[in-house]
Amino acid sequence: MFFNSLAFAVFLPIVFFLYWFVFNKTKNTQNAVLIIASYYFYSCWDWRFLFLLVFSTFLDYYTGIRIEKSQTQKSRKFWFWLSIIVNLGFLGVFKYYNFFASSFAALLTGVGFKASPFLLDVVLPVGISFYTFHGLSYVIDIYYKRLKAEYNFVDYSLFVSYFPLLVAGPIERATHLLPQVKVKRTFDYEIAKEGIYQLIWGLLKKVVIADTCAAYANAIFDNYPSMNSLSLILGAIYFAFQIYGDFSGYSDMALGMSKLFGIDLLRNFNYPYFSRDIAEFWRRWHISLSSWFKDYLYIPLGGSKGGIWMKIRNTFIIFVVSGFWHGANWTYLAWGFINAVYFLPLLLLKKNRNNIESADLSWNIDSIKVRLNILITFLLSCVAWVFFRAKTITDAVSYLKRIVLNGEFSSQYLSNERYNYELLIMVCLFVLVEWNNRTKIEPISGKYSYLKLILCLTAIIAFGTYSDYKEFIYFQF
Amino acid sequence: MKKFLLFTSKILVLAIVIAILLDFIYTAVYLQSSNRGKIDQVYNSENENYDVIILGSSRANNHFVSQMFKDKGLKTFNYGMSGGHLFEADLLLKLMIERHYKIKNVILEADLNLTNEHRADGISSKFLPYLHNSKIIKEHFSTEEDFNYLYYIPFYRYIKFDPQIGVREMFFQAIHKGTSHLQNLGYHALKDGKTGNMKNNIVSLKPLNHNKYYEEIKQICKENNINFIAIMTPMCENVVGMNYFEKVQKAYPEIHNYENVVIENKYFSSCGHMNDIGAKMFTARILKDFFPPSSPSPKVRESK
């Protein structure tokens, strides 16, 4: 059941009705409705994986309590590592086992040994990377005494499996979400209205921007050996907007619908393509994952303290692991590595926190420089996206090589029966709307909100792609 | 909460109103356009006279050279539609009759398309803008599973078939941007098939013994005194399962089997589609057999 499906359009109002009109007496009944709805939502993909979700929830719930109750450090360590190993074990088996097995076999074959690895024929449970990270952050926080263990299983379960964030985040922190599910929520019209606006804007990003860009990006990436330089450049740009529209659209929908239930989720995107350098880009892109890795990996490793080699090591570790989190493929590792290469000079020159404040733009030299930096950062991210999108690293390198060597910049008719340049107007319009609203969460609220709402609804109805419910890219992670 | 329910109801109403308005605008644009494709051309025309009308799939569209008919003094148009099934061929003929076309001969390519009675979405969707304006189209679609959605939900048909009749196509219709579909009297010539697939396996194909739409076309021709010529057109030499054509012949003895008229791969663009040279050889044979110079009206030919 996708957020942009008809089934979900029926599901959400039913849950809303039950939550506010039938089971609204106490926070326990409210949580029970959300838990049942979340488990139903998850089972719509594959009910068998519901057991995995429940097991993972129970494991972290139980180990969290045991860590807190342990009298000795040895016992604390035991429960802590048990949770970490089992959680990462599931992730490893379902997500990474086949990758490691086939890579090892390829390595053996490369040095002259014949190897036919045993591969698992399993589907990746949807959202496993997200809910595993929810659980991990909870257990780690308890271990380091930053958080008290949760003793109410229903409340804890809701923290892990709350349906708006269950399958593609944002990756919530117990410190942020648990206090909210521990009190009865009351309805707030202004917040709910804001939620509806955000939901609509997220839907527009998904069905109008992401899915339309996908048709062009796929046509170009799948046939890149016959594409000219212009098509290949446009292909990378279209993919950049596809993945942004897809993932930030999903996040907006998740945050928006959560507001309908009176629960505030962490912001996941903050107009990343308007970043002035790569460091700023990573403070604005998939914020919940970046901050997770920063808090639970980068800082424990020593962060940017220590010598130059430690800084370099930690930077590469965090970016490569982040790339690997996205999927078991060398292309994701390469994408992480490239981002580390982009980031490192800023870190070493101590410029990684240069662009914290928002820029005041006018038409002077400094503002032009800022705009130029935004453009350069966007183009750098597009180069990295080529590795993310390509099937293999060889494909990505050939793709980029062809951009340089082909040298043709004419219009080209693509396999989706469209010209390569046709989408540019829509993309430019989208950028313009986002640029003018970059200080807001979504562009609909404020002055002339009804007019903007009409325009958004018209765009969703007229320009949206609905021929099949296109899966969200991040569901596979 | 009341305020919120009112707010969401307003959004819902707004969405419905927008859908109705968009539906109205799109339909209005399609109703005034006639230079994009064969369907809108027929819909937006009336009282046309033709000596020969050609119907069928791409194997009609790429195989019957209309100009050669014209050169013999026969006013002809090739209404074969690439990707189309008999569902669409039948509906197009019904639409012509509704539009008071005077037709002397209908040549129907009837071979591989006899295997099913399904609609071909890519082609049939092009009739949908006229769903509320044509009784014939409405009736033809009325037995389809999704008819109620298509007919009663405003703008649904434009959303469902966005690549065919969505915003891009509507825009081109609005600015009257022409296409190549109506050039060369509807015939679309194919080039040599050096890269085309010259192998085909049709073992699994089975002609329906009583194809509803084929029978309807036959019946319409009979009722309107149109000479009906059904033809099986050539396939390349490397086809596995050539007895399919014999099965067709057995089920429909009146269909003329011209499958073997052109064989060599050099006359094909892909296995099921002849190139321009092959199409001309084939058309010459059809003209010779059905429209001989001496004969003022088409010769009724015994099936092979």
What's a concise summary of this model?
By secondary structure, chain A is mostly helical. Chain A has helices at 6-22, 27-46, 49-69, 73-110, 128-143, 153-161, 163-166, 174-181, 189-221, 229-260, 278-284, 287-298, 308-326, 330-348, 365-389, 393-406, 424-436, 449-463. The longest helix of chain B has 30 residues, at 2-31.
Provide an overview of this structure.
Chain A is mainly α and 477 residues long. Chain A has two domains: 6-186, no CATH class; 191-276 and 359-476, no CATH class. Chain A has helices spanning 6-22, 27-46, 49-69, 73-110, 128-143, 153-161, 163-166, 174-181, 189-221, 229-260, 278-284, 287-298, 308-326, 330-348, 365-389, 393-406, 424-436, 449-463. In chain A, helix 3 (49-69) crosses helix 4, helix 14 (330-348) runs antiparallel to helix 15 and helix 15 (365-389) packs across helix 16 (393-406). Chain A is globular. Chain B is α/β, with parallel strands linked by helices and 304 residues long. Chain B has one domain. In chain B, the strands form three sheets. Chain B has a five-stranded parallel sheet. In chain B, strands 4-6 form a two-stranded parallel ribbon. In chain B, strands 8-9 form a two-stranded antiparallel ribbon. In chain B, helix 5 packs parallel to helix 12. The longest helix of chain B is centred in the first third of the chain and has 30 residues, at 2-31. Chain B is elongated and about 80 Å long. Residues 300-304 of chain B have low confidence and may be disordered. Chain A binds chain B through residues 20, 187, 189, 192-193, 196, 200, 417-418, 422, 453-454, 457-458, 461-467, and chain B through 1, 3-4, 7-8, 11, 14-15, 18-19, 22, 155, 158-160, 162-163, 166-168.
Strand residue content of chain B? 5-15%
Task: Work out the helix count of chain B.
Answer: 14
| CA-based shape of chain A | globular
Q: What's the helix-strand series of chain A?
A: HHHHHHHHHHHHHHHHHH
Cα Rg of chain B: 21 Å
What is the arithmetic mean of pLDDT of chain B? 88
Strand content of chain A: under 5%
Protein name (chain B): SGNH/GDSL hydrolase family protein
Membrane topology (chain A): Multi-pass membrane protein
GO molecular function (chain A): acyltransferase activity
Main location (chain A): membrane
